[in-house]
TrEMBL record:
The keyword Cell cycle does not apply. It comes from Thermanaerovibrio acidaminovorans (strain ATCC 49978 / DSM 6589 / Su883) (Selenomonas acidaminovorans). InterPro entries: Na/ntran_symport (IPR000175), SNS_sf (IPR037272), YocR/YhdH-like (IPR047218). It is a multi-pass membrane protein. CDD domains: SLC6sbd_Tyt1-Like (cd10336). This is Transporter. GO terms for molecular function: symporter activity. The lineage of its organism: Bacteria, Thermotogati, Synergistota, Synergistia, Synergistales. Its main location: membrane. Keywords: Membrane, Symport, Transmembrane, Transmembrane helix, Transport. PROSITE patterns: NA_NEUROTRAN_SYMP_1, NA_NEUROTRAN_SYMP_3.
Length: 443
């Protein structure tokens, strides 16, 4: 490892930070709306299978590359192998930058809705005007950009404070709080009259809804929600000591991540069905449908505030990981100091995010038939992350195989059958499956 490099203070801190990165808007905003539009239970089952069969092996490969290389995503590839491999890391840094630009926008809506929970939003939503309220909000450019800016400032501040003093410190508080809020909301939702119809929609897989599209959606979601395919886990792994076991870290982080996605479904669908709303309303699900649901509950403002606070915690512990990928790159490769890197890249991300922030307004031009935010999401989640995933698994499974295997065994090995599965997944399963999905996206 390079001298004087920052490190996590404890394994607990690392797990909270890595789980904080994984658990985010992807679990609470994207997962429920994708489940809603993809027919419920069947999407959930596919997601779980893909997380276990492809997601976990790639996450293990990433952490091994990061700890083995001891540098940022680009530097680790260069140090371990060189050649063209650093380009994989470089694509990851670009992906991090692009994701953070629109992530800050959606997270900004979340901050706005925390405050709006106590404003006229609830009475508008009670009168059937939640969609209109959301539209008015996204057309108010000053507000949208101000909230995006505020969220980006919080992200920059945490990253500026460093790996231990910033990221780890905040994740250690926010992640446990998130589970507590989630538990409170779940009890509330499941005890509503008519909740069981939602549980049924959510848990009963309807095999007739299984299409190639559903599989692709579920794989993209597995990548996005596990924070894999762009060197985030490489960067976080590079701050981890040799004493810790990588497989057990991957296992805990994945379980924590999947738990949030699954439990959030138990908050959203029972409530949506109890109040006869539509589960398949798309990206607006939580900003349009949920306020309408909260507005009709006793103490709805409070539950709405709790929900959007939960989402804010989840979002900021992920956005810091996106920024850290870029900051680590500038620090290691160009000797920038942390503060300078955090501020300059954070501000640049904010500026790139402005078209996304404006794009949900009524007058903003569309790109390739999508709104700008949707186009950025597509470019990163459906193009850059899967491509990154293919190369990362090929790197660990073939090019740097012996090194990767040693690194995975250091600090606590996998049982033999699981190790064999990991090797097979990196060598064959992941590259082929992901390539298939990747090509399918463009059909
Ligand atoms: N996993 C995050 C989420 O589910 O919201 C998003 C994300 C963070 C993707 C970090 C990629 C990444 F490197």
């Amino acid at each position: 490892m390079s001298r004087g490099r920052e490190q996590w203070g404890s394994k607990f801190g690392f797990i909270m930070a890595a789980a904080g990165s994984a658990v985010g808007l992807g679990n609470i905003w994207r997962f429920p709306y994708l489940t809603g539009v993809s027919g419920g239970g069947i999407f959930v089952v596919l997601y779980l299978i893909l997380v276990a069969a492809i997601g976990m092996p790639i996450m293990l490969a990433e952490m091994a590359i990061g700890r083995g290389g001891g540098l940022n995503a680009v530097g680790s590839f260069r140090k371990l192998k060189g050649g063209l491999w650093p380009m994989v890391g470089w694509a990851g840094v670009v992906a991090g930058f692009v994701i953070l630009s629109f992530y800050g926008v959606v997270a900004g809506w979340t901050v706005a809705y925390m405050f709006k929970s106590f404003g006229p939003l609830m009475s508008m939503a009670a009168a059937g005007g939640a969609a209109e309220a959301f539209q008015t909000f996204t057309n108010d450019y000053v507000q949208v950009i101000a909230y995006q800016g505020a969220f980006m400032l919080a992200t920059i501040w945490i990253v500026y404070n460093g790996v231990g003093g910033g990221i780890e410190r905040y994740c250690k508080v926010m992640m446990p709080s998130l589970y507590i809020i989630l538990a409170i909301l779940m009890v509330r939702s499941l005890t509503l009259e008519g909740a069981m119809k939602g549980v049924e929609f959510y848990l009963k897989p309807d095999i007739s809804k299984l299409t190639a599209r559903t599989v692709m959606g579920a794989l993209g979601q597995a990548f996005f929600s596990l924070s894999i395919g762009m060197g985030c886990m490489i960067t976080y792994g590079s701050y981890l000591s040799d004493r810790e076991s990588l497989p057990s870290s991957v296992f805990i982080v994945t379980v924590m991540n999947v738990a949030v996605a699954i439990l959030v479904g138990f908050v959203i669908f029972p409530a949506v069905f109890a109040f006869n709303m539509e589960p398949s309303s798309g990206p607006g699900l939580i900003f349009v449908t949920l306020p309408a649901v909260f507005a009709r509950m006793p103490m709805g403002s409070l539950f709405s505030f709790l929900f959007f606070t939960l989402l804010f915690f989840a979002a900021v512990t992920s956005s810091v990981s996106l920024l850290e990928v870029c900051v680590a790159y500038m620090k290691d490769e160009f000797r920038w100091d942390r503060g300078r890197a955090a501020w300059i890249i954070g501000l640049a991300c904010f500026l790139l995010g402005i078209p996304s922030a404006l794009s949900l307004g009524d007058h903003f031009p569309r790109v390739f038939g999508m709104d700008f935010l949707g186009a950025m999401d597509f470019l990163s989640s459906n193009v850059l992350l899967p491509l990154g995933g293919i190369f990362i698994s090929v790197f660990a499974g073939w090019s740097w195989f012996e090194g990767a295997r040693q690194e995975v065994r250091r600090g606590g090995a996998l049982p033999k059958p699981l190790e064999t599965f990991w090797v097979l997944a990196c060598r064959i399963l992941a590259p082929i499956a992901v390539a298939w999905v990747f090509v399918g996206n463009f059909r």
